Amino acid sequence: MAFDEATQRELQQVLEKETAKAQLQNTVHEFTGRCWDVCIREAKSNQLSSKESQCMRNCVERFIDASMFVVKRLQSLQN
Fold first, then answer.
1. Which of 11, 57, 60, 67 is deepest in the core (most CB within 10 A)?
2. What is the mean pLDDT of residues 35-50?
3. CA distances from 79 to 9, 65, 72 (A)
4. Is pLDDT above 90 for 41?
5. Residues 10, 16, 17, 18: what is their CA dihedral angle, to the nearest 10 degrees?
6. Radius of gyration of the chain (CA)
7. Contact 40, 32 (CB under 8 A)
């Protein structure tokens, strides 16, 4: 079954968006796990302590900041 050029472009765009979403989910999962290992020593209850919560927040923000830095740096190198 052959698709016309417009349909092929549309399918390619959908595939690229889905791939990007999957990569983002994988990245979030990865740094959440890393931050958990750093911040949570022992899960004592079904809620995080304020210290654990703050640690998780700071850790995730650092990963986001670092990721954004890398993306911007790579973009600047391409230009």
1. 60
2. 88
3. 25, 21, 11
4. no
5. 110
6. 19
7. no
Domain spans of the chain, in order of start: 22-78
Count of Cβ atoms closer than 10 Å to residue 2 Cβ = 5
CB count within 10 Å of CB 47 equals 9
CA angle 30, 31, 37 (to 5 degrees): 100
CATH classification of 22-78, choosing from 2.60.40.10, 1.10.287.810, 3.90.1210.10, 1.20.1300.10? Answer: 1.10.287.810
The 10 Å Cβ neighbour count of residue 53 is 12
The residue assigned the tokens 């600047």 is 76
Q: What is the pTM of this model?
A: 0.62
